[in-house]
Amino acid sequence: MTRGRRFFTGAFKPEAVALLAIGVPTAHAAIGKSGCQKDVEGGGASRYLGAMTSDTAADRTGTDFEIFIVTAPGLESVLCEEVKARGFRDATAIKGGVTVRGGWPEVWRANLELRGATRVLARVASFRALHLAQLDKRARRVPWAEFLRPDVPVRVEASCKGSRIYHAGATAQRIERAITEELGAPISAEAGVSIKARIDDDLCTISVDASGESLHKRGHKEEIHKAPLRETLAALFLRHCGFDGTEPVVDPMCGSGTFVIEAAEIAAGLYPGRTRHFAFEQLASFNEAAWQAMRASGGNGAKPAFRFYGSDRDGGAIAMSRNNAERAGVAGLTDFQKHAVSDLMPPEGPPGLVIVNPPYGARIGEKKPLFALYGALGQTLLTRFSGWRVGLLTNEASLAQATGLPFQPSGPSVSHGGLRVTLHSTAALP
Ligand SMILES: C[S@@+](CC[C@H](N)C(=O)[O-])C[C@H]1O[C@@H](n2cnc3c(N)ncnc32)[C@H](O)[C@@H]1O
User: Which residues line ligand 1 (CB under 6 A)?
Assistant: First the structure.
């Protein structure tokens, strides 16, 4: 049976979907810059409380619900720019991600197209719950069959904050029981489909994790070198450096090739999620034919006039990068060479972006020799890469300074492998 066609064709029953659709971010303040900045009207979750004091659905919005696109804290504004550029509606950067509004097709599309998203949550229901008996009763009224399948196992993760119900375990158990008794779906700790229930300020929000495995797993990077960068972070740092696919990119310490492969995919217009599976494929709202059509629309047929270059002194890293690029389908757009940073020369053609995350102090190798390495990198770029911009990701401002490069005020910082790393970037070098 083709599931969920009504969600895609528009023949949709508004009254059947959201018990209470979520209209705004919860208690978080909106953050961001440029077009993504937006004030959240006073009180966040409390804004709902007046309308949510009864068991009845107070706000039904048909195909439209809130979609929360999770990203690495620190990169919300950059993700928000990407979300807006991809045409999602009502994008607002909040702590931990970006909210948009849409239906299931937008949920699929966010998973398929957004390079900076870690995970996509469909916020399908919300209700006030002041005590466990009320939670039990209202959880049973959620129209689970509209998005969960009785034959697919599900798991529930719960959290409680600033609420009369404070026991996450009891919350999860009540919701699991509602799902099994009302829908018949089995509960399993290993289930690929997960429901996230959050009670904040007595407001219970039910979300479906539409992604499953974290979206940085694109599905084609099987080989990783030491300290690999997540694809999602690489994509957002490229964007923050102004990369839009129309200039060459060089990573002189490329490891497993993350920056270079991301840049080549962006230039070729390939969807990041084109080869992987998602949890939403196991939901009742899924429509296989519509999804296949959406997925097949990827690739803008662009044939970039330039290549994307990686080098590393480690031959094993170069072999991995080449294999990863091959699997990603961008081997023809990339060039990986084994040599030290001191032997780096700019490729022929117009200048573009050098982006690099050299070894970090606390992660691989000792700190002292790193000052010499960063110094050599800076010297090479300053003497040979006139007209190129530089983006450098590191955990120590003093290491960035050791390059001697004319960095602008620091860019975004994120937690990466237990370290706080910051992007330092320059304008075109003199
Ligand atoms: C933090 S890793 C880069 C990880 C990479 N961004 C990825 O996603 O896999 C740093 C890389 O710098 C390389 N490296 C260290 N010293 C180098 C040098 N003098 N010349 C070129 N590469 C060097 C290491 O071999 C390592 O692959």
Answer: 225, 227-229, 253-256, 258-259, 312-314, 317, 340-341, 357-359, 373
| Ligand 1 atom closest to 224 (CA) | 9
Ligand 1: nearest atom to the Cα of 258 = 8
Domain 231-271+300-425 coded CATH 3.90.70.10: no
Phi, psi of 89 (to 5 degrees): -95, 140
- Which of the listed residues 230, 231, 312 should we mutate to test ligand 1's pocket, taking the one with most ligand atoms within 8 A of CB? 312
79 CA distance to ligand 1 centroid (A)?
A: 26
pLDDT interval class at 269 (50, 70, 90): very high
Please state the atom number of ligand 1 nearest to the C-alpha of residue 376: 19
Residue 34: the pLDDT is: 45
pLDDT at 53: 30
| Residue range(s) in the chain whose domain bears CATH number 3.30.2130.30 | 5-209
pLDDT the model gives residue 219: 81
Q: How far apart are CA 108 and CA 140, in angstroms?
A: 26
CA of 228 to the centre of ligand 1 (A): 9
| SS3 category, 2 | coil
Give the DSSP H/E element, type plus range, for residue 154. Answer: strand 154-161
**Measuring from atom 1 of ligand 1, which residue has the nearest CA?**
359
For residue 261, the tally of other CB atoms under 10 A from its CB is 30
Residue nearest ligand 1's atom 7 by CA: 228
Q: With beta carbons less than 8 A apart as the criterion, state whether 142 and 21 touch.
A: no
**Angstrom distance (rounded) from CA 215 to CA 427:** 31
* Of 164 and 410, the one with more pLDDT: 164
- Indicate the pairing of strand 65-70 with strand 119-128: antiparallel
d(CA 334, CA 100): 34
> In whole angstroms, what is the distance from residue 241 CA to residue 28 CA?
27
How many CB atoms lie under 10 A from the CB of residue 316? 14
CATH 3.30.2130.30: does it fit domain 5-209? yes
**Closest protein CA for atom 13 of ligand 1:** 253
| Atom in ligand 1 nearest the alpha carbon of residue 340 | 20
**pLDDT tens for each residue of 48-62:** 222 233 333 323 334
Which residues of the chain are in CATH 3.40.50.150 domains?
A: 231-271+300-425
For residue range 385-408, list pLDDT tens digits in order.
999 999 999 999 999 999 999 999
